Amino acid sequence: MTWREVADLAWRGAVLVVPVGSTEQHGPHLPMSTDTDIAAALAVRLGREVADVVVAPPVALGSSGEHQGFPGTLSIGQEALELVLFELVRSACLTFRQIVLISAHGGNAQPVTRAVRRLRGEDRDVRAWAPRWEGDAHAGRTETSVMLALAPHRVRLDRAEAGNTAPIRQLLPRLREDGLTAVTRNGVLGDPQGAHAEEGHRLLRGAVAEPGALVASHRRAVPRKTGHGRL
Predict the structure, then answer these.
(1) Model confidence at 181: pLDDT above 60
(2) Domain at 3-218, CATH from 3.40.50.10310, 3.40.50.1000, 3.40.50.2300, 2.60.130.10
(3) How many alpha carbons fall within 13 Å on the CB side of residue 210?
(4) pLDDT at 51
(5) Residue pair 214/102 in contact by the 8 Å Cβ criterion
(6) 30 - beta bridge partners?
């Protein structure tokens, strides 16, 4: 989009949606960009279903220190992510009155919450949302199904294997203390067996409904005409 196109949508009262992901290991069969891919896909689908939504480029580096024991993981940590989102939204608010952050990485939850709290303290109209899917915690059937729906050519199903299948609540204390390598040898929390694209499409359709309702319920202005775009 050009700046004039952005200005036109912002004048109508468009909402800016910012995907927030991560670059971290997702087992031996999913790409490092899985969380970012999912966040971006949810934002784009939201833009197709709800009028006057502009999708920002994704924030692809998150707080992934617990995955650092696996090669390729790139983490900027909680404080840096909080600051990035804080400054990003402050900048975006010069154009857009309403901002929605869509985060698809659980490790981002605390810095996202803190950034939103600080921004609201400055009277910025910003909200955050994260998908809550039932199933495996990380790189299991749930995320594998979603990635099969989004980018099947990037899923190495021939390398998919089960990881630690214990309930995540049992693993969290040690995971937070010693990282993922302490609880899973292959980076998977769950079992990708049985994953399929149809399930992924169903999960994505269900997930978009909640942020769609969030955007619709908090609009400050009635749009004069509809449209959506990507920066």
Answers:
(1) yes
(2) 3.40.50.10310
(3) 14
(4) 85
(5) no
(6) 26
